[in-house]
């Protein structure tokens, strides 16, 4: 084990500081050796070259034959064509113009002078960024208060709508879906349309779409005469869309300074283009992940932001990292099962939960601490002589970092001065680029999501089976057993699926299951009319 003096030296040797952002990255508690850094140099030469090509407009997502342009969003001048540059800048201008009109009441609901709420409908990359940013800047007097429908759970939808109550009449609905065909978003929209209709409100006067150019959702929004649409492009992935219209529209409407978020990302992008691992914070992160997980995801990344406002950063990173890096095949078609598992919540809260295992249990992880230097903008009382609550937060973070290290558990610490639009934009850009670098290091495509698409298709198959089951029961005047149904539908290999569908329909009073519920094969069923 290194002595305190050696560790202090290692800390100083590896500490990265960005003066304009006030952001530090400390990878001194990841136990790589100088030899390891030397070994990684050629891999990083390739990673830097890959990033240069990607930013210049190469087809960096070969499976889908797409460019990968989220870095252009905050530096439009580097976008490869004039048309793309214009699209990016015009969209930001339009978002600001639209926001101004909503805030001043030029655009308002039919029955009131102003909108009071936003209801954002979307899932995955079309929800997690907006949720994370909303939490970062939440306050009592936001111009519009945001709620989210990000699932197919009817009870969850009921709760969101119940909490909105009468304010539905002054709610602006954002339907966010790049493809414009994701079932969760489409169902959320239909449920909300129905709620508006039930309340005697004209949904079209409340709705805007943020969606892929030419998508079914865009066509629907135009045909229905919705308030407006903002574009998503095929060169922006869902999980890297926070700084596109997907994230900027809800952020601007909540009074968040989107130009500052973009500036923070722009500054971080400039810093992470430097082709030297020691001077490039994203390269430092990617190298540390590679070392800690042996370039094979052998250890998980536990993200611990010691700040309530950053609570959702762990969830946001979980998607960004796992959906990008979790891939079966590498770019040469070899089966590699790559990935980096990410989980986390927040410190110091988690110290009273799973940090017990982190400190003493199975050492299958490395930690990432996110530290915020400024406690609060308001003065807080001393809780004991010379000590305020925020000092405890620092103490807990430092104490956990040291205890983990002493017990052979490595960590990275990212420190920002405060949670501001500038630093949040920078954090997003830092991790986006670390993911891009890591993908190059392990030779995978970080920009497609075949597993997500497969999940969407598998869900559709089950629903198709349900429709067949229901229509068969409709046409039958006697109860049928599972086996009879599976035989009639020529779906014997799907008999278990049919059972799960039947049990769900029974629980929701759509069909009646007769027989011993503990013996699925004996059950008979009929439709409840
Ligand atoms: O990052 C991704 O690509 C996904 O998580 C998508 O954002 C998610 O599946 C939602 O897709 P869409 O925006 O097309 O509705």
Automatic annotation (TrEMBL):
Alphabetized PANTHER family for the sequence: GLUCOSE-6-PHOSPHATE ISOMERASE (PTHR11469:SF1)
Annotated signal sequence range: none
Protein name: Glucose-6-phosphate isomerase
Pathway where this protein functions: Carbohydrate degradation; glycolysis; D-glyceraldehyde 3-phosphate and glycerone phosphate from D-glucose: step 2/4; Carbohydrate biosynthesis; gluconeogenesis
Function: Catalyzes the reversible isomerization of glucose-6-phosphate to fructose-6-phosphate.
Gene Ontology molecular function: any one: glucose-6-phosphate isomerase activity
Swiss-Prot/TrEMBL catalytic activity: alpha-D-glucose 6-phosphate = beta-D-fructose 6-phosphate
Keyword Metal-binding included in the entry's annotation: no
Class of this enzyme: isomerase
Keyword Manganese attached: no
Membership in a protein family: Belongs to the GPI family.
Active site: 323, 352, 456
Organism from which the protein derives: Pseudanabaena mucicola FACHB-723
Pfam families: PGI
């Amino acid at each position: 084990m290194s002595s305190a003096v050696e560790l202090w030296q290692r800390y100083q040797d590896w500490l990265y500081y960005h003066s304009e952002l006030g952001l530090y990255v400390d990878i001194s508690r990841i136990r790589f050796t100088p030899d390891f850094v030397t070994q990684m140099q050629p891999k990083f030469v390739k990673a830097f070259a890959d990033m240069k090509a990607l930013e210049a407009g190469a087809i960096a997502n070969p499976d889908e034959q797409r460019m990968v342009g989220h870095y252009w969003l905050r530096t439009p001048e580097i976008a490869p064509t004039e048309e793309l540059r214009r699209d990016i800048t015009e969209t930001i201008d339009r978002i600001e113009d639209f926001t101004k009109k909503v805030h001043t009441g030029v655009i308002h609901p039919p029955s009131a002078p102003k909108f009071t709420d936003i209801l954002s409908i979307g899932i995955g990359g079309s929800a997690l960024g907006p949720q994370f940013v909303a939490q970062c800047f939440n306050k009592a007097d936001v111009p519009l208060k945001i709620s989210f429908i990000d699932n197919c759970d009817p009870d969850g939808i009921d709760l969101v709508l119940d909490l909105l109550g009468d304010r539905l009449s002054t709610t602006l609905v954002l339907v966010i879906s790049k493809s414009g065909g994701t079932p969760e978003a489409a169902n959320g929209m239909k449920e909300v349309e129905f709620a508006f209709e039930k309340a005697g409100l004209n949904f079209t006067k409340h709705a805007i779409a943020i969606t892929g150019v030419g998508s079914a959702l865009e066509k629907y929004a135009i045909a229905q005469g919705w308030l407006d649409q903002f574009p998503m492009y095929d060169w922006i992935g869902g999980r890297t869309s926070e700084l596109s219209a997907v994230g900027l529209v809800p952020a601007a409407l909540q009074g968040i300074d989107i130009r500052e978020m973009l500036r923070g990302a722009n500054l971080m992008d400039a810093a992470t283009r430097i082709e030297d691992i020691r001077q490039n914070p994203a390269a430092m992160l990617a190298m540390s992940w590679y070392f800690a997980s042996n370039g094979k995801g052998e250890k998980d990344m536990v993200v611990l932001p010691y700040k309530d406002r950053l609570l959702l950063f762990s969830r946001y990173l979980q998607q960004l990292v796992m959906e990008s890096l979790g891939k079966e095949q590498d770019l040469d078609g070899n089966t590699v099962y790559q990935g980096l598992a990410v989980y986390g919540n927040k410190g110091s809260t988690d110290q009273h939960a799973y940090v017990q295992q982190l400190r003493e249990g199975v050492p299958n992880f490395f930690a990432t601490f996110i530290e915020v230097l400024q406690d609060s903008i308001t003065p807080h009382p001393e809780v004991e002589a010379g000590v305020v609550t925020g000092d405890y937060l620092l103490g807990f973070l430092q104490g956990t970092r040291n205890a983990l290290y002493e017990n052979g558990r490595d960590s990275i610490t990212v420190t920002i001065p405060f949670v501001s639009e500038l630093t949040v934009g920078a954090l997003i850009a830092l991790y986006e680029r670390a993911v891009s670098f890591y993908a190059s290091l392990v030779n995978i495509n970080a920009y497609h999501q075949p597993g997500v698409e497969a999940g969407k298709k598998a869900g559709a198959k089950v629903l198709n089976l349900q429709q067949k089951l229901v229509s068969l029961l409709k046409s039958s005047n006697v109860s049928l057993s599972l086996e009879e149904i599976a035989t009639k539908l020529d779906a014997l290999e799907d008999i278990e699926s049919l059972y799960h569908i039947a049990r769900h329909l029974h629980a929701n009073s759509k069909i009646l299951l007769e027989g011993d519920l503990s013996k699925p094969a004996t059950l008979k069923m009929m439709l409840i009319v």
